[in-house]
Design goal:
single chain; 460 residues; four-stranded antiparallel β-sheet
Length: 460
């Protein structure tokens, strides 16, 4: 009867591990929280917004530049004529009044010079630099969008994993706690059997050792649960107080691995980002080549000056417009070196895109195999649990009849516990790996998961 009550406690512990569905957080709700408020996603979106401004900066090369200038101040000028020696007196003029014999004098000038002007410069031809700069900026923006999508995918994948880890560890803690309760009763029952002469001290020692190991496993399970909750809190922003069971997303997956690989090579954000990086590097080659072309433009200016040259009332007005042509002849070879450097970077970017394709292909095949293995493990662990339960019941009956030892009962009980833990882990793996395959093909997105999309990237 005591053992039956212990098994009843174990069943209660397992039931307590299942949350209250009426108030539980769902996996979809957790994914929506992470999508809307995860800091990692937010900082990547901010980086994209900053990157979007690059297109406006590039287009500025087509537009005129206009500048206005103005100045005002005070000017002081003292001017003195040079002295003249041995000056000949003027005939018939009193020497005291003769200007030619007077020493030279000085003059002082005070003025307030001021003026203003306007200048305009309009590029006509810059060797296609602006055109290719705009194309490069747009490629970088498109690549930045794919980077945001990749970060969103990684965050959603990590959130789904953390969610299922909390569910798994919660269930394991319940199983471990129930196991400790059963082992306590088992140890007490063994002591009673010793008094009746049906067991030995060896049986009691084995029961005590199993109880100590069960308590140790329970403490380890609680530690794992706390770690899983901390990860969940970091990703979602709230504590996982009550989580509802989650389902696999296999309905969103293709029918076979070949189709999955094809979709991944076409839609995965990492590959798309690498392709856009290569496009930007290709535009960089043309930007470097633009330094070898001549440039042309039109420059105009208008200026108005008052009190010019320190003279009060003196004014001037000037206006000019002219065309300007610059032809590079020899720059020491730096421009050609820049072109060669840009071409090598372009080749590197193309190879990087090929590497990403190979990595994505391998990830799809790996996660697909993991999902199939998890599905097979669920079937096998379910059968193992059923068989272990039947074996434990029979083992206990035989032990009561003296045909089995305490060690046999403890071994059967541990086998059942391990089977239940493995079954819980297999259920977690099936859900997690289904999300992994969805991420591997590039479709773990808000639109596919029916998460309200609160972010729209700006148009370049």
């Amino acid at each position: 009867m005591q053992l039956r009550r212990a098994f009843l406690r174990l069943a209660i512990f397992v039931c307590l591990a299942v949350p209250n569905f009426a108030q539980a957080e769902t996996l979809g709700g957790a994914l929506a929280r992470a999508y809307a408020g995860n800091p990692n996603v937010g900082q990547q979106r901010a980086a994209l917004r900053a990157l979007t401004e690059g297109a406006s900066k590039a287009r500025a090369g087509w537009r005129p530049t206009i500048g206005a200038t103005a100045y005002a101040g005070r000017s002081y000028l003292y001017q003195r004529d040079p002295s003249v020696r041995n000056q000949t007196p003027t005939p018939g003029v009193d020497p005291a009044e003769d200007e030619a014999l007077k020493p030279p004098g000085g003059q002082k000038f005070n003025s307030f010079p001021r003026g203003y002007g306007l200048s305009v410069s309009q590029p006509i031809f810059d060797g296609f630099k602006t055109l290719n700069s705009v194309r490069q900026a747009e490629a970088q923006i498109f690549g930045g969008r794919e980077d945001v999508r990749a970060v969103e995918q990684d965050t959603l994948m990590a959130t789904a994993t953390a969610y299922m880890d909390v569910l798994r560890d919660t269930a394991i803690v319940g199983l471990r706690a129930g196991n400790v309760a059963v082992l306590k009763v088992q140890a007490s029952h063994t002591r009673e059997r010793i008094l009746m002469g049906q067991a030995t001290e060896v049986d009691a020692a084995q029961a005590d050792a199993a109880l100590a190991q069960g308590r140790s496993d329970h403490s380890a399970a609680r530690g794992a649960l706390q770690a899983s909750k901390a990860t969940y809190r970091r990703l979602v922003g709230v504590e996982p107080n009550s989580l509802a069971p989650a389902k696999s997303v296999e309905v969103l997956l293709p029918n076979d691995v070949e189709l999955a690989v094809e979709i991944a090579l076409r839609e995965h954000p990492v590959i798309a980002s690498a392709v856009h990086v290569a496009d930007a590097a290709g535009s960089g080659v043309k930007i470097a080549e633009s330094a070898l072309y001549p440039t042309a433009g039109i420059v105009g200016s208008v200026n108005r000056d008052l009190d010019v040259d320190g003279t009060t009332g003196k004014k001037s007005f000037s206006a000019a417009i002219f065309g300007q042509l610059n032809v590079p002849i020899y720059g020491g070879g730096a421009d050609y070196a820049s072109v060669r450097q840009a071409k090598e970077r372009f080749g590197q970017a193309r190879l990087a895109a090929d590497i990403q394709r190979d990595q994505v292909r391998a990830t799809v095949v790996t996660t697909w195999a993991q999902l199939q293995a998890a599905k097979a493990q669920i079937v096998s662990t379910r059968a193992a649990v059923k068989a272990a339960e039947s074996a434990l019941v029979d083992m206990r009956g035989e032990a009561e009849a003296g045909q089995r030892t305490t060690f046999d009962v403890l071994t059967a009980q541990q086998t059942l516990l391990n089977a239940r833990v493995a079954h819980v882990a297999a259920q977690r793996d099936r859900v997690v790996f289904s999300y992994s395959v969805l991420a591997a093909i590039g479709r773990l997105t808000a639109s596919v998961l029916n998460i309200p999309e609160q972010y729209r990237p700006a148009t370049p």
